[in-house]
Amino acid sequence: MLSQKGIIRLSVIFATIFWSLLTIVDLMAAFSEKNEIAFGLPNIISNLLLAFFICAILIYYRYSISKAESVNFVDLLWKVFVFGLVTTIVTLVIEFFFNILDGHRLTENSIIINFFYHINMGLIIGFVSSTYVVWKRLILYQKTKSLLATWQIYEYLLLATLIYDLFFHHYNEPSFIAIYAVLGIIGLVLSFNLKWIAYLNFKQKWRSLLFILLVVVYIWYFVRTLMFYSDKSILIRDLLDNVFILSMITFIVIYAAISFLVILFNLPTTSVFERKLDEAVSFQRLSQSIPAGESEEKVYEILMESATSAVFSEAAWIEIRDESKNINVTLTDRIEKTAIPKIKSAVESSRFKKILNSEFDQNNDQIKLTANIKHPDYKSVLQFPVNVKGEKIGKLVLLKEVNDGFNKEMIDIIDTFVNQANVSIENFRLLQEALTNERYQEELKIANRVQRQLLPDKLVQHEAFDIHAFTQAADEVGGDYYDIFELDDHRTALIIGDVSGKGTSAAFHMAQMKGIFHSLVHLDLNPEDFMVYANDALSRCLEQTSFITVSYFVIDSQTNKATFARAGHCPSLFYSAKDSQASYFKNKGLGLGILRNSKFHNYVQVNEFEFAVNDVLVLYTDGITEATNKNKEQYGSERLLKTLTQNAELAPEAIQQSLINDLYSFCEEDKLSDDYTLLILKFRK
Amino acid sequence: MVTIDTHSIADEGVYELSVHGEIDASSSIYLETALKEAMQQSKKILIDMSELEYISSAGLGVFMSILQDLENEEIQMVLFNMSEKVIDVFEILGLNLLMNIQPSKEEALAELK
Predict the structure, then answer these.
(1) What mean pLDDT comes out for the span A13-36?
(2) Is the entire prediction scored with pTM above 0.80?
(3) Averaged pLDDT, A456-467
(4) Which residues from A are below 8 Å from B60, CB to CB?
(5) For the residues of A400-438, what is the DSSP string, one character each?
(6) Would B14 be classed as within a structural domain?
(7) What is the CATH number of the domain that holds B98?
């Protein structure tokens, strides 16, 4: 396939060839006529060349003139104007040449006359064709199916006349007149498609009027020139006997005349149409999301600009007071800020006030109203509240120098603008919030990473026991804590803790607990002292409603005994391999941070137990026993005990897995709403 | 969610609260408000816990946070009629050691005499 550029080039080449051939053939015919020699070629050949030339020109314009868009109507007319200008200048030069040499033998020479006629003819056909294509583009702007069909009929008929023109006809033949009339009528019908005119602004309309007028002037001049030649009977070929050309010219003139009149009569209403367009543009600007880096103030600016231009107000201001976002802005347009209070009091005391919103509102400062006011500069005022999420955060006030300056249409359009601005601001705020949230999410991810490092990443395996831990937080960070520390070669300290609440605050307290554990564990305290010191330290740093439950063990592999204290933490579960039974250590104990005075030591109880090979110690947090299923039943300590008893023969990791699997199958999901931790110790000796 | 009904037993000078539902992190604020109000109204406070289905550590934190104030202002507060599940939670944490918890209203009232 040929590209568009290729077609344009080819059509130019062909048009030039056909025109040259036509000119040569016609001049030869003129020569033979002059010298009364019989000319061998039939007329149809030269007519065919003319038809081909016209087709090539039409194809050229068809591909070189772009589709009509609302931005280029005047450009299209400009093209027509320029081409017409060139054609006119060439024609004028030829006319000038004839005028200078008036009476000279050359000007009587039929070959010379025919030659210049052909030059004129080529240019005029070019101009007519270009105008025709431009008119076609304008008519088919915003086309409908029926319009397109009518246009196609017209165009095919027009092309058909090219065939008719192959045989010489005189313009006063009946068939010639009939075809001409039919084409004229269809052309007239088509000429009432003028939608493009509505999209011209005031300036463009004036320019279009000028161009169209000039097109008509050109055509008039060309027809006059053609008739001037036509009067000289020595012409070999008379373009005025060509129904195709005549029909095109007629169509161009009709369309030019109608569009000229329509544009002329549309001039006075242009400003209304332009204003509607402005409103649409303002509306679009308001509805665009605020680009990043800009502030809400931009929206208020656009709102005031749009409102002012939409209702032609003489002055305006917008004031926004939003304490929740710390925004306090007053934007003014052609008015001093100092003049505002005076206008406000004038509105307050106005007797011609019309409240526009139905809702009852005590605060006069924030309602939708129009009023006529007593003020030296301004006579009427329109006031609109600015809302965000139903909250009035400010108002827009427009002022005019005449009474009753704001009509219903103006109020409606301001209403639309203000509403759209409200939506934009809401969207902007939502976006800001979303961005902040995203940042918080990132922060939480970091917190999660940091917190995971607070728990021992690998538990030291001990000669006396195997140990395995499992922990899961409900949120990114949690309040469960466990740790292990070798006091000496045969004693190990072990801790499990649970901070009240969950999430970030719990995570901070958990970090404090870790600090306290590592400070105290080096002192090699007995469990009671450990608890007392820890309580003392935590009493100084925990929030008033927070506490931490802890179980602290010191395991001695030399004596095979463990001493421990429980500070409000879930009772530890112990499985005795010898008895094949498990039980909870039910000693007394008060959570850390609950009693923040010296009486705490009264509530610490230290116990001791002996362990043997294959005994299992299970430490856990209440996230496990308090996990609930759909019926709000708790997993409970009984189920935990039973599952441990069934699985106590396994290795610590397998015990942990079977306990967690049982828990998940009980809850029917694997995402619990609390932090939960499980620590399994299996003794080796 | 939690709902807390309050009423005074006029002749005894006792202020009684009944707690219904569940107390978790989000609803513990209602418990706190109700307790603060009760402590302003009377020096003898009875809390009926029979309708309390669940209490989280945040709820326990509320009770815990007023213990010092109760002692300072010499206010007597007695909790009664706790379900087994709830009393278990109090006991594990050790709050039963610091608070007066009674099985029935009669016994609770007797404590206040």
Answers:
(1) 88
(2) no
(3) 82
(4) 500, 547
(5) ESSTT---HHHHHHHHHHHHHHHHHHHHHHHHHHHHHHH
(6) yes
(7) 3.30.750.24
